[in-house]
Amino acid sequence: MTKNWIDSIFAGVRNVDEHVNNTGSKYYTVRKDAKRKIDEYYRGHFKLYKDEWGNTIEDIKKSMEDCVRKFGCKLFIIDNLTAVNLDCSDTEKWSKQVDFINYCIQFAQKFHVTVILVIHPKKIETYRRLTKFDVQGLGSIVDLAHRLISLYRVQKKEKEDTKNPIKFDVICDILKDRLRGKEGLEIGMYYSNPSRRFYTNESEYDRQYSWDDTIYEKAIEYPHEEDNTFA
Question: How far is the CA of 73 from the CAs of 41, 79, 84, 177, in angstroms?
Answer without folding.
Answer: 16, 17, 20, 24
